[in-house]
Structures are given as C-alpha cells and as structure tokens.
C-alpha cells in the first residue's frame, strides 16, 4: 500500500453504502483507478463537488495491491464540467467521452496524454453547441493513444494501397481498416463507405498525430459543408470502430444521433 497523489477526471460513481461511493477516475499518472470514497454521500461530504461526474480533481489515494479497491482520502475540485448549460448534445458527448475512456482502459495502466486529451475535449464541449468535430477528434485521439488507429489507406488483409477513385470503399471495423477489391469477398462484416469519408478520417488522424490536440481543437471547423451522407458515414464508422474496440454497445451512442445533422 502506498499513498499517491495525482489529477484525475471522474468517469463514474456507484453507491457503495449508506455513506460511501465507489469512484472511477482516469488519472494522469496511474491510468484508471477505482476507489472507495468514505463519507462521500453524506450531506457534508469531505469531498464536496470534487466527485461530480467529469470533474477534474486533484486526488490523494491509498493504492491497494491486486484486485482490492483503492481508498480515496482527499479530492479537491479543479474544474467542473459545465456543458449542461450549453445544451443537451454537448452534455451527452461529455458522458460518452467518459464512457469511452472507462470502456477502453484498464485499472492502473497509465496512458500518456489521455487524461489531458479528455480534459481538453470536455473544455471544448463546454463552449460548443455543435460538437461533431470535437467528438470525432476525441475518438481519433483516443484510439491513436491506445494504439488502435485503423488503416485508412492500406488494405488490412494484403497491405495493398487502396484506389480512392471508386464509388465506394470497403471498411472492416473488426478487421481494423479498409479492404481492397480483391480481399473484400473473403471478408465479412464490412461497410461500404464513400471515399470522401475515409479521406476526412485519414487527414484528421494525420493532423492529430502531427500536432497536439489543443491546436487542432482551436482550428475553425466547417462541418456544415459536408454532405449529409458523409456526416452520417463519419458517425457510422466511428461508432463501429469504438464498439469493436470496447466489445460492447456503448450506452451513450444512442444519445448522439444529432451529431449526424
Ligand atoms: Zn487486399
């Protein structure tokens, strides 16, 4: 057991007893942690609002070995997630971002930059009524940091470069990327996607890998000029990719239909 100090974003809380909560946080230095917060449900909680969903807080916890839950001893609020004041869609997008991080990470496995990119995403959501690009960038950034970026240009089955002057290109979410015409008949579970959709995903991913997220998020975005079909396909591809990685239906995806509009 050791006493540790770090910053973390609250991903989930579950009632544990009359007075306590189990809190799941994604932290900067320790990855995801699950800790008991004794007294957190009391009217005069020692943690005050530091354990509200998606709050960024400085925490001190007793790190237990093995499967045991950690013990949270201090939490001080640094930044509150305020998107409820902006609109329902940014609020749901924030919940979705938290659900994604919870689903794709393991306890006590730190991932460089992931907490920072979650924090920047939440900050962006707090000031945007139409967060389509913010969520797309968050998804791409997350899968990149976790080492799961799909192949947008080379066939995942044979390695051939894909010709983009076609009406549609096969993309396999379980296979992790595009398929060339030769390999497509041998595969199952693929989608037929407009080449423009794949081109947007590829260039956005390349941009994110070149710069830090803060810079990309500050760019003026122009989702309005995209054809409705492409906007819908961007969501379809990312939803399938995220569900394949998390091996389950992500609950908040049902609330993000407005991102396609
Ligand atoms: Zn191929």
What does this structure look like?
By secondary structure, this protein is α+β, with helices and mostly antiparallel strands. The chain has 2 domains: 1-80, OB fold (Dihydrolipoamide Acetyltransferase, E2P) (Beta Barrel); 87-261, Up-down Bundle (de novo design (two linked rop proteins)), CATH 1.20.1440. Helices cover 32% and strands 21% of the residues. It is built from 6 helices and 8 strands; from the N terminus they run E-E-E-E-E-H-H-H-E-E-E-H-H-H. The chain has helices spanning 88-104, 114-125, 132-145, 195-210, 213-218, 228-246, and strands at residues 2-15, 21-27, 31-37, 56-63, 70-79, 169-172, 177-179, 191-193. A 5-stranded mixed beta barrel has the order 1-2-3-5-4. It has a 3-stranded antiparallel β-sheet with strand order 7-6-8. Helix 1 (88-104) packs parallel to helix 3 (132-145), helix 2 runs antiparallel to helix 3 and helix 3 (132-145) packs across helix 4. The model has no long low-confidence stretch (mean pLDDT 91). Bound molecules: zinc ion (ZN). Zinc ion binds next to loops.
The biggest beta sheet reads: 5 strands, mixed, barrel
Strand order of the largest sheet: 1-2-3-5-4
User: What CATH first level of the largest domain would be assigned?
Assistant: Mainly Alpha
- What fold name goes in the CATH topology slot of the largest domain? de novo design (two linked rop proteins)
Compact summary:
The protein is of the alpha+beta class and 261 residues long. The protein has helices at residues 88-104, 114-125, 132-145, 195-210, 213-218, 228-246, and strands spanning 2-15, 21-27, 31-37, 56-63, 70-79, 169-172, 177-179, 191-193.
């Amino acid at each position: 057991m050791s006493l540790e100090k770090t910053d973390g974003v609250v991903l989930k809380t579950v009632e544990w007893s009359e007075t306590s909560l189990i809190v799941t946080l994604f932290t900067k230095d320790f990855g995801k942690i699950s800790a008991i917060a004794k007294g957190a449900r009391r009217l005069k909680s020692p943690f005050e609002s530091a354990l509200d969903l998606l709050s960024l807080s400085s925490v001190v916890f007793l790190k237990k070995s093995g499967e045991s839950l950690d013990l949270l001893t201090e939490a001080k609020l640094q930044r509150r997630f305020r998107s409820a004041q902006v609109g329902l869609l940014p609020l749901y997008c924030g919940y979705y971002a938290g659900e994604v991080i919870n689903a794709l990470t393991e306890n006590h496995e730190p991932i460089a930059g992931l907490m920072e990119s979650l924090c920047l995403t939440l900050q962006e959501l707090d000031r945007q009524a139409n967060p389509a690009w913010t969520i797309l960038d968050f998804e791409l950034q997350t899968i990149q940091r976790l080492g799961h970026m799909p192949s947008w240009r080379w066939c995942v089955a044979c390695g051939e470069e894909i010709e983009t002057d076609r009406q549609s290109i096969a993309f396999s979410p379980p296979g992790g990327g595009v398929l060339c015409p030769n390999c497509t008949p041998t595969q199952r579970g693929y989608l037929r996607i407009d080449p423009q959709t794949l081109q947007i995903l590829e260039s956005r991913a390349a941009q994110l890998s070149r710069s830090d997220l803060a810079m990309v998020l500050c760019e003026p975005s122009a989702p309005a000029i995209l054809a409705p079909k492409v906007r819908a396909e961007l969501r379809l591809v990312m939803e399938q990719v995220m569900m394949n990685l998390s091996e389950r239906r992500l609950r908040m995806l049902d609330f993000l239909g407005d991102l396609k509009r």
